[in-house]
Amino acid sequence: MKTRYLTVNANYPEPKLIAQGAEVVINGGLVAFPTETVYGLGADGLNPDAVLKIFQVKGRPQGNPLILHVSSLYQARELASFWPPAAELLADRFLPGPLTLILPRSRMVPEQVTAGLPTVALRYPSNRVALALIEASGVPIAAPSANISGRPSPTCTQHVLTDMDGKIDMILDGGPVQVGVESTILSLAETPPTLLRPGGVTREEIEQVLGEEIVVPEYVLHPEERSSEGSVPSPGIYFKHYSPQADVLMVTGSPDEQVAKVENFMTRNKDRRVAVLATSEHYPIYQNSSMQPVYLASLGSRLNPDEIANHLFGAFRECDEAGAEIILVDTISPTGMGLAVMNRLCRAAEQHYI
Q1: What does pLDDT average to over the chain?
Q2: Which of 37, 164, 175, 220 has the most C-beta neighbours closer than 10 Å?
């Protein structure tokens, strides 16, 4: 298969180009497209055969449900059998945006999308290319991240090409994404609401809008607590996920302890190809060290976890391109967007740390 590649204006998507992507969706094909979080791999969410192609191309377990992307709240309400007051509050504050809501599904949603579960994951993205594609297609678009299952999610089209070139019908290039990690997933199918995956909307922001504490399961920060067997209630919560080819080790402790651990590890592993992903506070220290890693990058300030989230997946892929065997990553506080960063790190590292 030859993958068609179209460059689309991110702010004013050209209708003729969007129509070509919509034609692929309508005909049961696969289109990679940008959202504000990561690039998605989209298919007609009401076409079971098209949905199954997503699982086949990604190598994704069929027990891992998909998110349905919509272009309006009206479309979202049609896909849910019940739309609670909490959904209205959250939609008014955060949608369109990087928040996915788990709700009881309506009969029009195929079981292939939900992994046979009675709930459906719904997302109303803010990216203009994504919205134009969904609207032109006339159907909700089922879309996980546009990468091989378990690998780092793509934040630009080069990442999509690496994993998907020749496997899918089309890539719509709308430029780099804004957030860099996947959407927050919040289940409203239970009381109180449960955070199934942290992301672009923080726990603190949700609790402020709802006026109550939400449940944060243990496996959000400790993925080993979650089994990888059978269907799961939400996308993105299998234990090992978001992983580069190299082994990832989280560097824990206070800032000073992290620096000491990295320098000690580099000294003891002179014959290994070690990469270091540092906070900007530590980057100059590692840059001037006598022990130079095979790849060194600054992810951003530990005081700005949004910046770190935006750079993390791309940096993982750059470490692989540099031939790293091991990647050391500075850890940060799991508050605000830091919770999403640490969730992704825990899964990529399979909870391994120094």
Answers
A1: 94
A2: 37
Contact partners, residue 212, CB within 8 Å, separation at least 6: 192, 193
Q: Note whether 141 and 25 are within 8 A (CB).
A: yes
Q: Hey, what CATH class is 4-225 in?
A: alpha beta
Give me the residue spans of the domains in the chain.
4-225, 247-348
The whole-angstrom separation of Cα 35 and Cα 282 is 31
**Closest Cα partner for 236 from 245, 226, 251, 250?**
226
Task: Of 249, 242, 247, give the one whose Cα is nearest residue 328.
Answer: 249
- From the list 188, 179, 216, 234, the residue with the least C-alpha distance to 90 is 188
Quickly tell me which residue has 């006339």 as its tokens.
138
Tokens of 307: 């910046």
| Measured CA angle at 160 (ends 73, 335), to 5 deg | 60
Each residue's pLDDT tens digit, 9-21:
999 999 999 999 9
Both structure tokens of 73: 């709240």
CATH class of 247-348: alpha beta
pLDDT in tens, 33-82: 999 999 999 999 999 999 999 999 999 999 999 999 999 999 999 999 99
The total of other beta-carbon atoms located within 10 Å of residue 352's CB is 11
pLDDT in tens, 289-309: 888 899 999 999 999 999 999
